[in-house]
């Protein structure tokens, strides 16, 4: 287990949140996360991983393939242990900036991760549960001269764990009856009939109907008549990674630069730990320039504050402040603005400050203060 250096007794009594930082714009966004979380809460201990994880760009700068493979494995092993340690200590959430995908998916495979994103706009909603624990994105590489052979696997047990979690989340999203339709988007035609047979048996055991479609069929239905309201869409990475931004446009009316998502670990040794991340990547070309869009990170801090640190209303307060900033034209250049990362964060903190002051006065009055 990775130790927490310099931890005091009073710190251990505070609610804790993990923080893992990758290269590129990771350090700038980590600073934004810490500042916003502090503004939204009355006390939280941030447990930061001691390792600065590689982005793909920083790995490529390291040189040859052998060194990249070694550093990839080291980053994955370290982050996996960090997550296990957080879960063992009862830390409920971790915010992670973007890191190299190959390292990340090694961890997701070992800890059985799913990504959950509830998209809603225009009176329709979609719950996307993305299977990150199996398939092409996971697996191992074997290198020969001029060739990379990637070995991957699909598992009946992992498939059932993903479906069960998806059903649980759908009942939370729609507590008045659950999903109206359940669709799975996987390239199952390549798996000798095994995958769709598993899905049918799992559906029968849980008393639900699941339609298993090829990704191109889901795309055709999406273009022809959209997916019905209250659709639970369970998808393999091979399709969902590419289509996430399209689904955001169709159902979320949101740009990926502004959005965060959550990843849930299903492996018993990490159960209960939820990881938040931005949808956008590491943006290494912006590193150190104070120009990366912090909105997704700000929203992640608000979700962590409300869901895991017990500060009800943090999301609504943050969204109100973000709308006020947008109305004033406070935005980074990627959204057509002229403000820096730190400038947007400072403006947000200023917008939150009156509410924070009012909350403090109310708390003081309840405690008998003047």
TrEMBL record:
Keywords for this protein: Manganese, Metal-binding, NAD, Oxidoreductase
Cofactor needs: Mg(2+); Mn(2+)
One of the record's GO molecular function terms: oxidoreductase activity
Keyword Cell division: no
Domain Isopropylmalate dehydrogenase-like: start-end pairs: 16-348
Listed Pfam families: Iso_dh (PF00180)
Protein name per its UniProtKB record: Isocitrate dehydrogenase
Taxonomic source organism: Streptomyces mexicanus
Organism lineage string: Bacteria, Bacillati, Actinomycetota, Actinomycetes, Kitasatosporales
